[in-house]
Amino acid sequence: MLDDAGMAVANAAVFGQTGPTDTISQAYAPMPGPEPFWRADLFLNAERAARESHRRTGGAAREFALYLAHACLHLADWDDATPAERRRMRRVESVWLRAAERRGLIAGLIRRGARG
After folding, report:
1. What's the pLDDT score for residue 110?
2. 1-44 pLDDT tens trace
3. What is the secondary structure of the chain as a DSSP string?
4. What are phi and psi of 45, to 5 degrees?
5. What residues contact residue 55 under an 8 Å CB cut-off, 6+ apart?
6. Can you list the pairs that 12-21 forms with residues at least 24 positions away whose Cβ atoms lie under 8 Å?
7. Which domain holds residue 52?
8. Is residue 95 in a domain?
9. What is the mean pLDDT of the chain?
């Protein structure tokens, strides 16, 4: 969980791009062994989630959950480069968010001043 400044650093390091973004998904080759061990880093911008939550309904925790769903889809090799791809991702994200809300998984996802 990063703020805009941290996301700008991560965006430069991972993609060579300037400025903050909402999510970054970085997958790594699986670790060798009898059962492959997959590794990934997810960078999620909590500052942006709080800011954007004022434009959408559901609050900062729901916006943050949207970023998490979006990052997971990118890890699964989904893309959002075209309008059709973005619509497809949004449909799946919406289904996941509704399911998470029904199970009470979004409330309290982020807390002000939380670290780590």
Report:
1. 65
2. 899 999 999 999 999 999 999 999 998 888 888 887 888 999 99
3. -B-HHHHHHHHHHHH---S--SEEEEEEEEEPSSS-EEEEEEEEBHHHHHHHTTTSSSHHHHHHHHHHHHHHHHHTT---SSHHHHHHHHHHHHHHHHHHHHTT-STTSS-TT---
4. -90, 100
5. none
6. 14/43, 20/45, 20/47, 20/48, 21/45
7. 4-102
8. yes
9. 89
Q: Classify residue 41: in a domain, yes or no.
A: yes
Q: What is the pLDDT of residues 97-113, one digit of tens each?
A: 999 999 988 887 766 54
Residue 28 placed within a domain: yes
pTM above 0.85, yes or no: no
Q: What is the CATH number of the domain that holds 21?
A: 3.40.390.30
Instruction: Count Cα atoms within 13 angstroms, Cβ side, for 70.
Output: 19
Q: Please indicate, yes or no, if residue 107 is contained in any of the structural domains.
A: no
Q: What's the number of domains the chain is made of?
A: 1
